[in-house]
Records
---
Amino acid sequence: MTSLVLHAFAPLDGPAAPLARHQIQLLWAACGDVLGMDARVPGSPLRIMPSDWRGGPRVAAIAARERPGDGLRPAERSRDGGFGPAGGGFRAILRRDRDVLVLSAVLTGGDDAGWVEMDRWLDDAAAGGVDALIGTARVYRAPSAHPDRPPDRAALPQFATQTGWQDDRIRFGDHACGWELSPRQDTRRERRLVVTGPEANLTALTWGAGEDELPPLARYLRHAGVLRYLYRIWTGDQRRIGSMREPGIDRARLAAEAARLSGMLGIAAGSLRELSEAAAAARSRGDGGLDPVTDDRRFGHWLTRQLDDASTALENLRRAPAAPASAPPGGTPPAGPWPAASDPAPERPATSGGSSAGSRTAPPDPARWDAPTAGSSAGPWPAAPDPVAEVPQPSRPGSPRHALRMMFTVDAVGYSANDADGRDLMQRRILHVVTEALGEMSLALTDTDRQVAGDGISVILPANIDLPRALAHLLHGTAVALRAERDRYATPLRLRMGASLGKIRPAALGYSDSTIIETNRLVDSAALRTVLEADPALLLAALISDRLYPHTVADGNARLDAADFTETPVMIKSYKARAWLWTPK
């Protein structure tokens, strides 16, 4: 029998807490008024309404309610005194998990109700709003003795899904699998997953057997949600933090802001650690593309680095307020095997069945917040993301219009030999490898300018990067990423690469000028095709233009040995030049 689990997470501390707590209270009340859970859970000491929404033990269940299913046995208390699985009907439990309030609800379907109907009922229950929450997650459970394949998409509600989600399978132990359906936007408030496996495994994974402790998947989603919540707030902080580079800025204000960022860093580091522990408890591992668990971990590591850098930069400004060197660093996080969304629009449009949890809001507008002052008691939990204002993503490193910029083009070997599905998969694999290489430079895909072709992509790097370091990370990072992803697919991805340096000019169809022409000619050259044909095991062959080589290799590079480059003439169409061939060892 299919079922649907909801987990909603609200902060208990900080300026956002009152509104978030109010929304959780409305959602809890709707579990009774809308979903009919107006009975106490048999055998449980928990009452329907909590006596204290904030106090009590730091980790504890504080309320529970249910609507028994027609003709189904109510869940019995387990031998160890735990909450036990829902035996039918609907059930909800409210927990305090340290500084977060967690509402969990399970809806069990029947002959006349499936995921579509249950999803609509949750939409109705969440009509009071969830935009102040840390986040929500909906888990669609499909009991199956053969969990290797996801359920039919037609059985699921109509909502936006991540392209290629079927390829990014997660295994939970030996008997359950999961897939994340929702678009993996960096600011996402709502996550949707589908899990399959034996009923007992799904219950232990998503609902648990004890009252007080969160089940493994809910614990994981709670900490992943905190990381995304902090990112939304930190993104909104960029405008205000940037204003602090002005000469004569008040030292106390800088100290307060640095302390606030340091507090956020502590929360992020703790959540990243707990996220890894929860993933281990769920025995989760990727089994396909860049799975959501790996994506969350990388995002968490990136966010902690950004918060650490920003806090350190503010402290440096505080020590030298008369002549600050630069604004604190900004940035956008590493993408998975898909473009990170820079549009701060809602993650999912409302469906005809009702407003979706997470579809009402956008990232915050820091201009609407008061800057902290010395002695502020706001703590590390910042103000709630504003549900009506939008803020742009942090601007990428400056790229003057006429500055010289390094760029590269990659092209896949054997792309046209694939069918439509194979070409779609190859595009995702190319994008994954490129984002991995950019990550080695501490860049995200959204930090760059891009021009995409079906079988490849041209990437224009920011103007203020360290060229020798960037080329070294590009070459070695691409080679490492190709080797890593080779083990996940029957056919290895093999790339031709061309890299150059010059001016880049926007044009009607993307970008123009001799530099982008040059990288495309290098990629199409006979030299690269010949070396790849001669060695079927070779995954990458790159040509570095004679314009880029002197700035990155010829004058010395600790990460690149000039002896590894071979001078190579390139002649294709009207292009004739010298380039430098590199292949990984």
Note: Residues 70-87, 323-330, 334-380, 383-402 have pLDDT under 50 and may be disordered.
---
Amino acid sequence: MLPVTAAAHRRPPRRRVLVLVGGLLLAPLPVVVLLGNERPRRQPAAGPEAEDVQPPRLAAASPAPPPPGWMPGATRKPIGANFGQGGRAGQRGLVLHVQEGEGSLFERFSDPRTRSSAHFWVSQAGEIEQYVSVHDRAWTQSAGNVDWVSVETSGFTGRPLTAAQVDAVARVYAWGARAHGWPLEVTDSPTGRGLGTHAMGGAAWGAHACPGTLRARQREAVLSRVRESHQA
């Protein structure tokens, strides 16, 4: 055995490889295999900083305020018929009505054949829909359309407003008090100001008993909610 010198140790080993070309086996060619000290570098382990980085999210734009005469927070569903543009002589307050039925009145008030509408509708669950700007005349209480805003409440004359309806009507009234100066008081006169009823208009308003005794008596509860919201 020959002694291994330092030079021989550093000499890269040679391997012979058979080369196949066109189906013929050629003479083996020497191939040099380099054995270096350098090893393949490991990829660094993924740490928290290597996780997918999400691009910064842009802050959501604030919703645009509703047009004048439309209540913020109410579901705005403008109808295309059954109301008069402008012509409001003043803002005396809000007139309470009863629907004598259930479900949104949007489809009914959108039908030109009904020739009726209201500014607002409140469901028994407290949902608020607005159909007409309070700067326009809804066709609700005949001669009272010029001075008053109207709200229909889902349900029937023989049943009181639900707690959710009391709160919702209070929200409508609180907005009207802030935006249009409605006084925090009950009224039973068509020439008064405050929270009234359809019945107070008598024959000039169609001679209706709407919204019935039970709901008429709940007006003070509505105003109590409004006062609480003003104090909060």
Note: The radius of gyration is 40 Å.
---
Amino acid sequence: MPAMPDHPMPRRCALLMLPLALAAVGLSGCGTPADAPAMRLSLAESLQLRSWVPPGLRAQVQLMPVSGGQPTGRFWGAKISNASLQEALEESLRDTGLYAPRPADARYELRVTLMLLDQPMVAVLDAKVAVTLSYTLMESRTGRTIYERKLRTQHTAEFGSAILDPNERMRMASEGAIRSNVNTLLRELLELKWPE
């Protein structure tokens, strides 16, 4: 039986590729927290909603501190912190013209709780994330509830959006789900009857 020729070239290429492969795996294992600017409404959405805001609601909403968020782990995951959710909501309210510049003068208080962040353990291909947020809008002076609702929305980040990093796909899906949730909230608020 003839001896198999030894080909050092493929083995050398494999050894050179090993550090690159380990680096890619290491990078994909880092936690990727949700980013507030990516969770807020887009400029086009904000401008469209802003044109529908009734005078009785314009600059009348004070956002109370949000709850239910979680910090992202150092090595894995894509969670949503209270601080980033607070910033995304505040900027969305400001961009649509609902945010009260002086909280003491606000007619309404908005309370928000992140009830559920439903993510896959590992986003092997597409990452599909669903969020449930609880919203309560109350009159500041009387404490009367004007609007109370739990909204569930979802978003999918496709595999091609971040091929090497499943945490990045999960982050993008989480941000999209929050953005959709806030959009739904604001549209529902604008459909209510408001005093002048």
Note: The helical segments are 8-28, 36-39, 43-50, 82-96, 166-191.
